[in-house]
Amino acid sequence: MFRLSIDGEIVNAKGRGSSSNNQSKRGEGRKPKPGAGRPGPGPGGGSRSPRARGGRPSASKDGQARRATTRKGLGGDQVEGRQAVRELLLAGSRQVREILMVEELDDAPILDDIRELALDMKIPLKSVTRKRFDADALTMSHQGVLAKARPLEEKSLESLLSHRAPFLLVLDGLTDPQNLGAILRTAECAGVTGVVMPRHRAVHVTATVTKTAVGAIEHLPMALVGGIPTAIQDLSKAGVLTVGLDADGETALFDVDLSDDRPVALVLGAEGSGLSRLVAKRVDVVASLPLRGQLNSLNVAMAGAAACFEVVRQRTPAQASGAPDLPI
Fold this sequence. Notes:
15 strands, 19% strand, CATH 3.30.1330.30, 4-stranded mixed beta sheet, 7-stranded parallel beta sheet, alpha/beta, Alpha/beta knot
C-alpha cells in the first residue's frame, strides 16, 4: 500500500492499515461569461475564526501563513495568486465581490489582464498597502493579488456520474492543502471530469489550495460525500471501475484496462495512512505503480499524476497521438 510519512512521502510498507490509528489520522484568450463576476450577495462559505493576536496571520512550519477556519462546504471563497485570480475571472462561473492588489507592484502582463477583466466585469479592484493586504491574505505566496468570491458550488455524486465517460478522482481523506492543490491541477490537465472528497476530516479548498491549483478549481466539479467507502460502493453499482492505488497492490496499474472511455475512478489514500482498510476492500482493483529506482517512495501528488496520465494514455488512440501503439 502507499504509505505516506508526515511530510507527504509514500513509503512502501506492508499491510493495509488495519489499526484504529489510521482512522484517527484521517479525519489564457478566453472571454468570461456575460454578466458573470458581478459583485453581489452570495451564500456564505463558513465563518472565520477570530484573528490571531495582533491581526497578523501566523506562519506555519512550511512557510505558509494560515488562519484557522471552520467551513461546512467546499470553500474557495478566497483565491490567491495571479494565475488563480485571472482564471477565476476568465471562467466567469461565480460571483467575485472584490479584488485586492498590492500597490506599486512590478509591471506584468498578467496584472494588466486582471485589471482589464475586473473593469469589464465591474468588479471593485482595490490597490492597497502591503500591510493592509497582509491583513487579509491567508498565504505567504499570494504574489500580491487576491480575490474574494462566492464559494465553490458543491456537486452531487449523481451529477458527476452523468458525464458520458466519467473519469473521477476519489480522495480518501487528504489533509495537506498543497497536496490537494497539486492533485487538482494535475486532474484538470488530465481531463478528470469530477473529484470526490469526504465532507469531514479532510482538507477542502483553502487559499493555499487555490494558489497551488492555479485556477483548476474553476473547471473541476467537486462533490463532498459523507463517507468514501459508501461512495465507492455507489460508484461500483453505477458501473464505474474503482481503482485504488497501493504500493502492495498485486496488479500493476499499467495492466488494468482503462481504455475506450471506460468509466473509471482512481482512489488515492491519505497522507500517513494510505487507503483505509474498508476502502481497500471495496475498490474493484488495488493497483500499484512499479518503482525501478533506488528510492521506494512517491509523493501522493506525484503518484496521482502518474495514475491520471496512464488513464489519458490508454484513452488516447495511437492514430490521434501520431505515435505507434508500443507495449509497455
